[in-house]
Amino acid sequence: MTDFFHGIGKIAYEGPDSTNPLAFRHYDPNALVLGKRMEDHLRFAGAYWHSLAYEGLDPFGGRTFQRPWYGDGMDRAFVKADVAFELFSKLGLPYFCFHDADVRPEGKTLVDTVTNLNRVAEVFAQKMEATGIRLLWGTANLFSHRRYMAGAATNPDPEVFAYAAASIKAMMDVTHRLGGENYVLWGGREGYETLLNTDLGQELDQMGRMLSMVVEYKHKIGFKGTILVEPKPQEPTKHQYDYDVATCYGFLKRYGLENEVKLNIEVGHAFLAGHSFEHELALAAALGVLGSIDMNRNDPQCGWDTDHFPNDPQSVALAYREILKAGGFTTGGTNFDAKIRRQSIDPADLFHGHILGMDTCARGLKAAAAMIEEGSLDAALADRYAGWQAPEAQAMLKGERSLDQIADRVLAAERDPEPRSGRQEYLEGLVNRFV
């Protein structure tokens, strides 16, 4: 254990009336929500990259944080691991997530790099056994290094494609060895800047082949976790192939992977795609590909993915309502893909950010559960579509009526359907009762 977080003990639940900034006011891991422990509903995970690897950079300025583990070398990587597990343990996070590049230095060759990764994984295994913290998912960073400036799976150079494949294999092996419950592929640069130098069909086929190989390798090594793809529309690439839930599902269907791969959906990415987070969750659930989530928020005044910690219980409540309606998480969970601001330079700020996020999610979960238990929203929805339960409506839906048969019936009736109010303001008022 390090002394980086000097004077900060384990964060405890103290209830809504607490004024202690280093305590939970709403997140009580053992509280029952719909008959299930809050911790088991939310399945919180700490993001290694934003909490430990982020240096306070922004597009116009460099490092603002001073951390004892910054720099190359395995000794720094081991210090970072010590601090990471101290942070996760004191917050009571049951899970963590990481990219390979977050935890190990780059070697002179890929052999050296993989060796470094495996050495850190051995340390992780010891710390996981000692603390009980588990791995929600692992992933390979295939976007930061200059070799990936034109993409990884979609790169015009087949040798870069092959290097990416070898990197994914190494990280899948580590994820499997550490008992990871999912493996994520985020195509950070799987897209294009201009069609003048892009064969879009070629690149999609490359991306489809890479994902197919990942699925094949999952079964070869006996990995029982879920393979996840993370939608994102843009930034840094002008247009990315994994734009949103609908685009990803179409991609999976095209390459026959819709029953093998689910989605890891992020709040900020939904925002960049012009959607609400609950829209993306509801669509993924309807298509059978809802897997896991990255919880954060964007600043509406900024045009990029700012990854703030969540602070709006109402928007979070609407999101968890969709997750609860879909049956809740199985292998997925709530990963805090969120970072503290570059002026928040004190070690304690890492705790304040996570406490904010965890309490916001807890409030949202409780509100979502209360909406479901009270039932008014579901009743209003059922009433709106009640007409479809009538025999003639069911016959239309099941294909038992042709277009001309339907037209003949409508013409014979000689009456127009009377519109009904959508009652949006009433329903929004209902939501306000619970948040």
From TrEMBL:
Reactions accelerated catalytically = alpha-D-xylose = alpha-D-xylulofuranose
Q: How is the cofactor bound, as the UniProt entry phrases it?
A: Binds 2 magnesium ions per subunit.
Q: What is its EC number?
A: 5.3.1.5
Q: Where does Mg(2+) 1 bind?
A: 230, 266, 294, 337
Q: Keyword check for Metal-binding, yes or no.
A: yes
Show the GO cellular component annotation of the record: cytoplasm
Which family would the database say this protein is a member of? Belongs to the xylose isomerase family.
- Which NCBIfam families does its entry note? PRK05474.1, xylose_isom_A
In Swiss-Prot or TrEMBL terms, this protein is called Xylose isomerase
**Gene from which this protein is expressed:** xylA
